[in-house]
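Q: I'm building a small set of examples for a reading group on sequence design. Run inverse folding on the following structure and report the sequence directly after it, with nothing in between.
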């Protein structure tokens, strides 16, 4: 694996050199059960429908299921990439609306905390494939594990998915606290999922924003909300994205609106390169 990595470092251009406009966006949450992976899948389809070339990385290593949600059957997964036997280009799957998916393995506890070598290898591989797309969407696991903070720190934008449940807000606040204090992240976009209406979404966001502003001195960005919708579990049962299967449903329309907002984000001026990321990992954070 070390030889493979050194060869790539010698010959591979960085994202900044190859495609300075690639948006790297991490989607994460403080706890499971808030619909984060469904959010990733449907935002990816919505972005593709908006004309963006989208690559989705299932970074819930060890418990990945984006391929299952979309009815895809991978031959290889990130396990083979992290073992050094394959490149990311070998495991890419074609998804709906032209999106591409990099599947993670399932039931792989040894991948729940990447080693430094694995982190560097994956970062180098991502720089290589991300240069061919407009948006790289990274679906992390839930919580504050090293893998979650790794991918959030590597991205230019972080979307935190929350629901109205008190535990969701508490755990989202804990995640934002770790990322801001230990990894110096200051930009957080919040998407409220599984709410009855816009009023409930606004109230839910304000609770989290007030705590972050008071105790962390951080102002969160409200990205929007996705309503409770019976069509969403129906699409899941069919292993389809609701934006593709039921495009006129309330959830699908909301996903499309959020995706349009993301598509209008300005191009990143300073993409995070491997060198920058390594410095973040090597310099202790106070």
């Amino acid at each position: 694996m070390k030889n493979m990595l050194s060869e790539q470092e010698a010959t591979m251009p960085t994202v900044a050199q190859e495609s300075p406009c690639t948006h790297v966006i991490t989607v994460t949450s403080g706890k499971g059960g808030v619909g984060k992976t469904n959010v990733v899948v449907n935002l990816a389809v919505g972005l593709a429908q908006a004309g963006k070339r989208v690559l989705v990385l299932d970074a819930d290593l060890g418990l990945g299921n984006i391929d299952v949600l979309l009815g895809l059957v991978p031959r290889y997964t990130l396990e083979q990439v992290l073992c050094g036997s394959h490149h990311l280009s070998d495991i890419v799957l074609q998804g709906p609306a032209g999106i591409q998916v990099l599947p993670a393995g399932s039931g792989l506890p040894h991948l729940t905390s990447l080693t430094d070598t694995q982190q560097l290898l994956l970062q180098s591989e991502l720089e290589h494939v991300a240069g061919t797309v407009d948006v790289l969407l990274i679906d992390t696991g839930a919580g504050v594990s090293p893998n979650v903070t790794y991918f959030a720190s590597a991205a230019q934008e972080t979307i935190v998915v929350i629901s109205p449940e008190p535990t969701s807000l508490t755990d989202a606040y804990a995640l934002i606290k770790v990322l801001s204090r230990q990894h110096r992240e200051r930009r957080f976009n919040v998407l409220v999922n599984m709410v009855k209406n816009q009023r409930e979404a606004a109230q839910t966001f304000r609770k989290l924003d007030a705590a972050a502003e008071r105790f962390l001195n951080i102002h969160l960005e409200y990205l929007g909300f996705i309503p409770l919708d019976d069509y969403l579990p129906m699409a899941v049962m069919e292993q389809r994205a609701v934006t593709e299967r039921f495009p006129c449903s309330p959830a699908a329309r909301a996903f499309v609106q959020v995706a349009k907002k993301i598509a209008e984000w300005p191009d990143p001026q300073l993409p995070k390169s491997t060198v920058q990321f390594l410095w973040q990992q090597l310099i202790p954070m106070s």
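The first helix runs from residue 2 to 11.
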